[in-house]
Specification:
Elements lengths: L6 H14 L2 H9 L5 E2 H8 L3 H13 L3 E6 L2 E6 L2 H14 L11 H4 L11
Antiparallel strand pairs: 1-3, 2-3
Protein backbone atom coordinates (compact mmCIF):
# COMPACT_ATOMS: atom_id res chain seq x y z
CA UNK A 1 0.00 0.00 0.00
CA UNK A 2 1.32 3.46 -0.92
CA UNK A 3 0.84 4.96 2.56
CA UNK A 4 2.67 2.20 4.42
CA UNK A 5 6.09 2.80 5.91
CA UNK A 6 8.68 0.12 5.27
CA UNK A 7 10.85 0.26 8.39
CA UNK A 8 13.77 -1.46 6.67
CA UNK A 9 13.82 1.07 3.85
CA UNK A 10 13.42 3.98 6.28
CA UNK A 11 16.47 2.78 8.23
CA UNK A 12 18.51 2.25 5.07
CA UNK A 13 17.68 5.71 3.71
CA UNK A 14 18.43 7.30 7.10
CA UNK A 15 21.85 5.62 7.24
CA UNK A 16 22.70 6.75 3.71
CA UNK A 17 21.55 10.31 4.34
CA UNK A 18 23.59 10.36 7.54
CA UNK A 19 26.60 9.27 5.51
CA UNK A 20 26.08 12.26 3.22
CA UNK A 21 25.52 14.68 6.12
CA UNK A 22 29.14 15.67 6.63
CA UNK A 23 30.86 18.69 5.05
CA UNK A 24 33.93 16.76 3.92
CA UNK A 25 31.81 14.03 2.34
CA UNK A 26 29.81 16.65 0.46
CA UNK A 27 33.08 18.17 -0.77
CA UNK A 28 34.10 14.74 -2.04
CA UNK A 29 30.77 14.29 -3.85
CA UNK A 30 31.15 17.71 -5.47
CA UNK A 31 34.74 16.94 -6.50
CA UNK A 32 33.55 13.70 -8.12
CA UNK A 33 30.55 15.18 -9.92
CA UNK A 34 32.17 15.25 -13.37
CA UNK A 35 34.85 12.57 -13.19
CA UNK A 36 36.51 9.85 -11.19
CA UNK A 37 39.51 10.81 -9.08
CA UNK A 38 42.30 9.01 -7.29
CA UNK A 39 42.57 9.23 -3.52
CA UNK A 40 45.48 11.68 -3.86
CA UNK A 41 43.50 13.87 -6.26
CA UNK A 42 40.65 13.91 -3.74
CA UNK A 43 43.06 14.85 -0.95
CA UNK A 44 44.23 17.79 -3.07
CA UNK A 45 40.66 18.76 -4.00
CA UNK A 46 39.22 18.80 -0.47
CA UNK A 47 42.30 19.96 1.40
CA UNK A 48 42.78 17.45 4.20
CA UNK A 49 44.93 14.41 4.98
CA UNK A 50 44.90 11.16 3.07
CA UNK A 51 43.94 9.30 6.23
CA UNK A 52 40.92 11.55 6.78
CA UNK A 53 39.78 11.30 3.17
CA UNK A 54 40.21 7.51 3.16
CA UNK A 55 38.02 7.14 6.26
CA UNK A 56 35.23 9.15 4.64
CA UNK A 57 35.58 7.32 1.32
CA UNK A 58 35.20 4.00 3.10
CA UNK A 59 31.98 5.15 4.77
CA UNK A 60 30.49 6.32 1.46
CA UNK A 61 31.62 3.21 -0.40
CA UNK A 62 30.09 0.98 2.28
CA UNK A 63 26.76 2.81 1.81
CA UNK A 64 26.96 2.35 -2.00
CA UNK A 65 27.22 6.11 -2.50
CA UNK A 66 30.61 5.75 -4.21
CA UNK A 67 32.13 3.10 -6.44
CA UNK A 68 35.86 2.41 -6.64
CA UNK A 69 38.34 0.62 -8.82
CA UNK A 70 41.98 -0.25 -8.31
CA UNK A 71 44.61 0.42 -10.94
CA UNK A 72 48.09 -0.72 -9.93
CA UNK A 73 48.71 0.96 -6.56
CA UNK A 74 46.02 3.64 -6.93
CA UNK A 75 42.34 3.54 -6.05
CA UNK A 76 39.95 5.67 -8.08
CA UNK A 77 36.51 6.76 -6.88
CA UNK A 78 33.37 7.90 -8.66
CA UNK A 79 29.78 8.61 -7.66
CA UNK A 80 27.91 5.32 -7.85
CA UNK A 81 24.62 6.73 -9.10
CA UNK A 82 24.11 10.16 -10.67
CA UNK A 83 20.88 10.49 -8.66
CA UNK A 84 23.15 11.17 -5.64
CA UNK A 85 24.28 14.31 -7.46
CA UNK A 86 20.64 15.22 -8.04
CA UNK A 87 19.94 14.75 -4.33
CA UNK A 88 22.86 16.97 -3.35
CA UNK A 89 21.80 19.59 -5.91
CA UNK A 90 18.20 19.53 -4.72
CA UNK A 91 19.29 19.88 -1.11
CA UNK A 92 21.50 22.82 -2.05
CA UNK A 93 18.70 24.50 -3.97
CA UNK A 94 16.34 24.14 -1.02
CA UNK A 95 18.70 25.32 1.69
CA UNK A 96 21.26 27.55 -0.04
CA UNK A 97 19.51 29.39 -2.86
CA UNK A 98 17.90 32.78 -2.40
CA UNK A 99 14.13 32.59 -2.05
CA UNK A 100 12.26 33.34 -5.25
CA UNK A 101 15.12 32.33 -7.60
CA UNK A 102 13.76 29.65 -9.94
CA UNK A 103 15.75 26.44 -10.24
CA UNK A 104 16.13 27.05 -13.98
CA UNK A 105 18.38 30.00 -13.07
CA UNK A 106 20.83 27.64 -11.39
CA UNK A 107 23.86 26.28 -13.22
CA UNK A 108 23.25 22.88 -14.87
CA UNK A 109 19.50 23.60 -15.14
CA UNK A 110 18.92 23.26 -11.43
CA UNK A 111 21.53 20.61 -10.83
CA UNK A 112 24.03 22.86 -9.08
CA UNK A 113 26.32 20.94 -6.78
CA UNK A 114 29.13 23.42 -6.34
CA UNK A 115 28.04 24.90 -2.98
CA UNK A 116 29.66 28.22 -3.76
CA UNK A 117 28.32 31.61 -2.72
CA UNK A 118 26.61 32.43 -6.01
CA UNK A 119 22.91 32.89 -5.52
CA UNK A 120 23.12 32.10 -1.82
CA UNK A 121 21.87 34.11 1.08
Amino acid sequence: MAGEIDEGNIEKVARCMKALAHPLRLKVIVALRDRELSVQELVDAVGTTQSNVSQHLTIMRDKNILDSRREANQVFYRVGDCKVLDLVALTRSIFCEARGVPNAALPHGGLATDFDDTGGE
